[in-house]
Amino acid sequence: xxxxDRHTSAYIAAILNALIIGxxxxxxxxxxxxxxxxxxxxxxxxxSFAAASIPVLFGWxxxxxxxxxxxSILPLALLYPALFFSFQAFGLVYSSxxxxxxxxxxxxxxxxxxxxxxxKERPSRAQKGFTCLSVAGVIVIFxxxxxxxxxxxxxxxxxxxxxxxxSAAYNTAxxxxxxxxxxxxxxxxxxxxxxxxxxxxxxxxxGAAGTISQYFAPFRETDFIFSMIYLGILSSLVTSYxxxxxxxxxxxxxxxxxxxxxxxVTMLAGVAVLHETLxxxxxxxxxxxxxxxxxxxxxxxxxxxxR
Length: 307
Known about the structure:
The protein has helices at 3-31, 37-57, 67-94, 97-104, 107-119, 125-145, 154-180, 183-209, 222-249, 252-258, 261-273, 280-305.
């Protein structure tokens, strides 16, 4: 495949990844009516791992992963999904969603810093500026919703910050790993780590509370089942593959910039499905996000054309 075609495919993958993640918040809201956050994570990654295992068990996909490969990939899989979701879930216990949204909006900036240091990726000043503009758009949306300062917790902020740093570190590390390993091998191991991590945490919690019998109770609800199918297969398995594919073709900071589009998708889904109000600050934030992402890519093309 021609380089330009691969880059086009990578950008399509990044956009699809943002669309799926953006819509996932609707299904998380539905699932939270029947289960707690760690049960949701456990069940979604159980479905993700089961779906990833089907083509392997039937021999449609051959995995050639040695113990040495597992040890090499393990830190990547621990960064995302294990540490990212764990820090996020515990952080939200002590922080509001607005606080978390503002802190996690900085993931593209953290990624840019990590990628510059570890991968020697050198974005232009225009790329840095447009990336910061897209981050500012996310911050505007969450800040204008209202951050409850009185409920702010240093512990919660630190945990959300660690979650954001885990995501940025994953974006950076995956850039190299996708050059060394097949995408399905990376995706499969990430699903396996998520399955083991979150089922372990959920079972320990239920064991301590004496509620093991309630572990599968949420599956009595049809809405919960559909939510888990979306979150487990699309929002966990498919997005892992899409992000790994995009990172195999384009720089880490470019891929990370697309992540802010998920906030825009979440906002539009809330207006269309949940009939939430579209305020002026939503429009301002959305314009900043779109201009930031498009402007960064326009700067990329201009820079290439000058060489």
